[in-house]
Amino acid sequence: MKDITIDPSTMKLELDIMDIPNVCVVVICEGKVKIRELPSHGEYKIITHQGKIKRLRREEGEEF
Protein backbone atom coordinates (compact mmCIF):
# COMPACT_ATOMS: atom_id res chain seq x y z
CA MET A 1 0.00 0.00 0.00
CA LYS A 2 1.30 3.36 -0.94
CA ASP A 3 -0.24 6.81 -0.76
CA ILE A 4 0.97 9.41 -3.24
CA THR A 5 0.27 13.13 -3.28
CA ILE A 6 -0.61 15.31 -6.23
CA ASP A 7 1.57 18.41 -6.56
CA PRO A 8 -0.84 21.22 -5.53
CA SER A 9 1.00 23.90 -7.51
CA THR A 10 0.74 22.07 -10.84
CA MET A 11 -2.10 19.62 -10.02
CA LYS A 12 -0.06 16.90 -11.75
CA LEU A 13 0.58 13.35 -10.69
CA GLU A 14 3.95 11.84 -11.45
CA LEU A 15 4.60 8.12 -10.99
CA ASP A 16 7.89 6.31 -11.34
CA ILE A 17 6.87 2.94 -12.74
CA MET A 18 10.03 1.40 -11.30
CA ASP A 19 8.80 2.19 -7.75
CA ILE A 20 5.31 0.67 -8.04
CA PRO A 21 4.30 -3.01 -8.13
CA ASN A 22 4.09 -4.79 -11.49
CA VAL A 23 0.38 -5.51 -11.04
CA CYS A 24 -1.45 -2.69 -9.28
CA VAL A 25 -4.37 -0.32 -9.40
CA VAL A 26 -4.12 3.48 -9.12
CA VAL A 27 -7.19 5.12 -7.57
CA ILE A 28 -7.71 8.89 -7.62
CA CYS A 29 -10.48 10.59 -5.65
CA GLU A 30 -10.76 14.20 -4.48
CA GLY A 31 -7.09 14.96 -5.04
CA LYS A 32 -5.89 11.86 -3.17
CA VAL A 33 -4.05 9.03 -4.88
CA LYS A 34 -3.65 5.49 -3.61
CA ILE A 35 -1.77 2.63 -5.20
CA ARG A 36 -2.68 -0.91 -4.20
CA GLU A 37 -0.97 -4.07 -5.33
CA LEU A 38 -3.41 -6.58 -6.79
CA PRO A 39 -3.46 -10.09 -5.34
CA SER A 40 -2.22 -13.01 -7.43
CA HIS A 41 -5.68 -14.52 -6.95
CA GLY A 42 -8.91 -13.25 -5.47
CA GLU A 43 -10.83 -10.02 -5.88
CA TYR A 44 -10.16 -6.37 -5.17
CA LYS A 45 -13.30 -4.31 -4.75
CA ILE A 46 -13.56 -0.53 -4.93
CA ILE A 47 -16.58 0.58 -2.92
CA THR A 48 -18.12 3.96 -3.78
CA HIS A 49 -20.88 6.03 -2.17
CA GLN A 50 -22.36 9.21 -3.62
CA GLY A 51 -19.61 9.50 -6.21
CA LYS A 52 -16.75 9.14 -3.72
CA ILE A 53 -14.52 6.19 -3.00
CA LYS A 54 -15.22 4.88 0.48
CA ARG A 55 -13.22 1.69 0.69
CA LEU A 56 -10.73 -0.53 -1.12
CA ARG A 57 -11.32 -4.13 -0.11
CA ARG A 58 -9.19 -7.16 -0.86
CA GLU A 59 -11.00 -10.48 -0.87
CA GLU A 60 -9.23 -13.77 -1.26
CA GLY A 61 -11.05 -17.04 -1.42
CA GLU A 62 -10.08 -20.63 -1.37
CA GLU A 63 -11.13 -23.04 -4.11
CA PHE A 64 -12.74 -26.22 -2.96
| Series of secondary-structure elements, N-terminal to C-terminal | EEEEE
What structural class do helix, strand and pairing data support?
A: mainly beta
User: Helix fraction?
Assistant: under 10%
Mean pLDDT rating = 83
Number of strands: 5
Any low-confidence stretches, pLDDT <50, length ≥5? none
Radius of gyration: 14 Å
Q: What topology, given as strand order, has the largest sheet? A: 1-3-2
Overview of this protein structure:
The protein starts with a strand and ends in a 5-residue tail after the last strand. The strands form 2 sheets. It has a 3-stranded antiparallel beta sheet, with no helix packed on it. The radius of gyration is 14 Å and the shape is flat. Helices cover 0% and strands 48% of the residues. The protein is built from no helices and 5 strands. With 64 residues, the protein is mainly β.
In short:
The protein is mainly beta and 64 residues long. The chain contains no helices and 5 strands.
Descriptive key words:
64 residues; mainly beta; three-stranded antiparallel beta sheet
Q: Can you lay out the helices and strands and say which pair or pack?
A:
Layout: E1 2-5, E2 24-29, E3 32-37, E4 43-49, E5 52-59
Antiparallel strand pairs: 1-3, 2-3, 4-5
